[in-house]
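Weekend entry, working from home. Most of the wet-lab plans are on hold until the incubator is repaired, so I used the time to fold the two sequences that have been sitting in the queue since the last round of cloning. Logging both here for the record. First:
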Amino acid sequence: MNALLTPSSGLAAHVVGLCPTLRKLRILRHMTYDVTLTELASTGTCHQRVHTTAAGIASAVGRGLQDLYEFAARAAVTPAGPPQLSFPDPAPGRELDLDLCLPISGRPEKSGDIDVVVLPEGPVALTFHHGR
């Protein structure tokens, strides 16, 4: 999964603004990720915002991604890339909102808490999470 740290998130602002040469990022105590600072083109996605805590990120992401793939299947659109996740700095014990996005081939109508958005082009700090 791509984890996109957009300029609107506090962590991304730190990565992009204060540490332009950063190549490793420690998200939680036991996770370290390689980071690439890059520009992304605008991308059509289905999107769901999920409210959770730092301790609940894994289960919230799992449920949310399942919802996005089921939405894409019901809407008869094809996933057009890996799922993406944008989030603020996950401080222990703090509640946070995760923005889960799945790039898709079409522009179906919104359904329930899943909407269809175009992620704007622009700078991001990009990393990949390989599940365990």
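Second, folded right after the first finished:
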Amino acid sequence: MPGEKVTQIEENLLKTFQEIDLIAPVQRALADEKYETPTPIQAQTIPATMQGRDVLGCAQTGTGKTAAFAVPILNQLGQGNRKSTPKRPLVLALAPTRELAIQIGASFAVYGRHLKLRQALVYGGVNQGKQVRAMNRGAHILVATPGRLLDLMNQGHIKLDQLEMFVLDEADRMLDMGFLPDLKRIISHLPEKRQSLFFSATLPPSIIKLSQSLLHKPVSVNVTPETTSVERIEQRLLYVDRAEKKTLLKSILTSEGVDRALVFTKTKRTANLLEKQLLKDGIAATAIHGDKSQNARQRALEAFRRKQVKVLVATDVAARGIDIDNITHVVNFDLPIEPENYVHRIGRTGRAGAEGIALSFCCGDERRELRSIERLIGQKVPIDPELSLPEPAEFKSGGSSHRRRDAGSKRSKFKRSASKRSGAKNSGPKGPGAKGSGAKSSGAKSSGGKGAGKYRKVEAAGGPSASKPKRRPGRKPKKAGQRPAHTA
């Protein structure tokens, strides 16, 4: 990759923020926050940014990437004491989600509290009136998500012709979410002469390619270890019948040692259903996903941050941008389709070098997702010996997951293994309300043990439920002797 490579030489790293030639108002703000020692990403990128260099920075989540670009930007703007121009920001920071944009804006406000600088937040999900008024007053710093930014640009409320500094945060996530066309349209409006800062938790080939086309002789800083940060997180895999997932989740969440849990689902519908089920079970929970209004999402995050609720149920929209410490457990209720999201999900409990516990449910049709995850992290996820069903035989065989011919027999084998594990017998037809055979009783800790607590027994629910033949909605039952209607 073109650009100067900044190597991780410990003796060359800045030891304190006092060593950085920052203006007094910024130094005072850092002192207010009790910031003394910069993190590796800050120590290596802040000086380069202050020299006017383009930067491509990579570091794991929770290591201070936001301060790594916010501090030098504020330092630069604070020296000129320039007035803001209506509709024309000097700095643009792009983020993939509303939550992350709000957090970036909060960081700029904290580190710039002693400076007379204006900033504006622009994101979707809320009325644009307040955002338009903020841009009409003028803002030195604009923090935005791509969609709403383009909307306001098309309406003439934002012009980027005077932009001096461009920040792309969580660049890999931006591309994962399909924002590349929007990014190209936004970048086409930027001045040729500008300083660009790209920050990301990972550096996939797509980001390298984008940086090569947009950054000018960038300083490349990668403080992410060669091995993934997930190694510090205690990971456990739990094979479970799909019908037993909710019962197993309840058992885990009500166990000793589970103080604050983040539960990930594959779909928004599942997140909503799970929230209702947990509340019904007496577990304080709330859900967050893309269909929620911005106010609802912020209320949910704030309730989780203040421990007003114990469980936050989320889709992958929340895998990035949740800046909440002391999450003790992450539960993958559904395995993610994209294996990279597994790392981002469980990273919520391993913030800034902390340890955590990540439990992943896996049922018969999630084999492909599991194999992709294990290839990405370079290790097999350990099976929880106390709570997991036995590994299905077809998972061990290594056969192709593309073959559909024996899909039915594979599912039945998985269910038979669940029945064998629990020692229960199926009785009667299995209707929509039936829960299956139940999972193994456990009174012992998971083998990892770190704060996992004793997970209570997973009990099978009730007996068989009577099933009625279903008919398609809107179709009346056919009377005796009635001939079917002829359709053309």
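Plan for Monday: verify the second prediction. The chain has two domains: 4-222, 229-399+411-422.
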